[in-house]
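Weekly structure sync, notes
Attendees: PL (lead), two postdocs, one rotation student
Agenda item 3: pending single-chain targets
PL asked that the sequence for the first pending target be pasted directly into the notes so everyone works from the same version. It is reproduced below exactly as submitted, 283 residues in total.
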Amino acid sequence: MDHFINLTLNGLALGAAYSALALSLVLIYQATRLVNFAQPAFALLSVYAAFAVTQITGSYWLGFGAALITGMTAGAAAERFVVRPIARVSPLNGVIVTLGMLLVVQGAVGMIWGNEQHAFGYAFSYVGRFSPADIFAVSAVAGVALLLFLLYRFTAIGLRMRAAAHHPEAARLSGVRVGLMLTAGWAIASFIGALAGMLAAPPFLYPNVFDIVFVFGITAAVVGGLDNPFGAILGGMLIGLGGSWVSGYVGPELATLSALVIVVVVLSVRPDGILSRPTARKV
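Predicted structure, written out during the meeting:
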């Protein structure tokens, strides 16, 4: 029983990081109907910025703040200057461009910091049944989810952002600066993606470190429903728990396969995701 509890708690901590990345993907998809394959690139750039600042200042938390600011800035700049002009022509162009940004950022990181591994410490201990690091990860994601809910439900800017995402023409006629709201949405999503990067960062950094994390993140987004932020959180937790249980009872080499099994099972029952909104089919 103790083994099961330990695996469950570990799965919740892993799921928190996957949930944060899935949430960042869902926020952008809601606003632009675009799956942002550059999100792990922003997370990677953010974590390396944290690494650089930590090396200079000796403070993990200054590095943590630098990571969040870097992610937010990168997301806003990418939407305004790269994605928006190209996505106007075709949504497929936007997908291709985000894939290109992923490769460019990974290459740039390798050129600046090298392809060798860099040791990167963490502010909290991983020792214990539900370690301080695990508590911080789960608390951070829960806090972000609560703040997002309050932002979108109870603030004027949140209302404008929802209007710009779901009814852009009507919002524009009502005086909402739709472009600015979309940029703000990308900035918030990339801020959360940077948080996911900091939570999922291993002890050693290298340019492709977030490839598998992104696979789990996008899987979580699909499982929960690409149009539902809370579905992203639920999906992340399911992927984290499933991977932890399979790794602990069967073997770590099958943890990735468990994500595929969860996707197949969930989408067989709910093709649009667990918490997706029902939509009318065109005939």
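Discussion points:
- The longest helix spans residues 2-32.
- DSSP finds eleven helices and two strands in the chain.
Action: rotation student to compare against the earlier draft before next sync.
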